[in-house]
Amino acid sequence: xxxxxxxxxxxxxxxxxxxxxxxxxxxxxxxxxxxxxxxxxxxxxxxxxxxxxxxxxxxxxxxxxxxxxxxxxxxxxxxxxxxxxxxxxxxxxxxxxxxxxxxxxxxxxxxxxxxxxxxxxxxxxxxxxxxxxxxxxxxxxxxxxxxxxxxxxxxxxxxxxxxxxxxxxxxxxxxxxxxxxxxxxxxxxxxxxxxxxxxxxxxxxxxxxxxxxxxxxxxxxxxxxxxxxxxxxxxxxxxxx
Length: 241
Description:
Organism: Rhizobium leucaenae
Number of helices: 9
GO cellular component, one term: protein-DNA complex
Keywords: DNA-binding, Phosphoprotein, Transcription, Transcription regulation, Two-component regulatory system
Structural class: alpha/beta
Strand order of the largest sheet: 2-1-3-4-5
Number of domains: 2
CATH superfamily of the largest domain: Response regulator
Protein name: Two-component system phosphate regulon response regulator PhoB
InterPro entries: CheY-like_superfamily, OmpR/PhoB-type_DNA-bd, Sig_transdc_resp-reg_C-effctor, Sig_transdc_resp-reg_receiver, WalR-like, WH-like_DNA-bd_sf
Number of strands: 11
Strand content: 15-25%
Shape: globular
């Protein structure tokens, strides 16, 4: 593979035992890994080269990871994939990372397969050449494109994160029915991750904001007090009598 064609992945860590083996694995899978020793290194890598993903090695002391995520999400390279690697003791910042815009959280120690699966999630997004077909299909009403991670309504679409799409897919599959927080957790996250019901609430809030960005979309996510959430699809259009 031409080195210029490799997708760049920045690994922010001070742990050589993490960087060296995963750097080798990423290279064999067609990625180009780069080491970042500070938040400024990460941002400079984004600005200079453009990157596919950022891996954040999070310890209980790495509060800077949250600030970095926020800065990336408000920058010109906001679409880059953010993956947090959580060590033991880093769980307290898990929720803060999700609020800051992290796409995926993986518990350490982690298998190379899980990391590669997360990195390749964006590979399945809908190609730009098929966007017009997607929009034409969406004009018939509210739809989701799970592979492209898009919610579509009235010819408009919004791109969602991997976790957001998993939650929305679960809700849409059971439209009009109650989905408890525990059901959403089980269908979205690995059992090894310490996900709480509050984490679900954070993602529901993000999904609601995303749906509001779709002009004229009447679909919504309704809260059922102390029980969970219900997806309310837009009403069917009435045909003239």
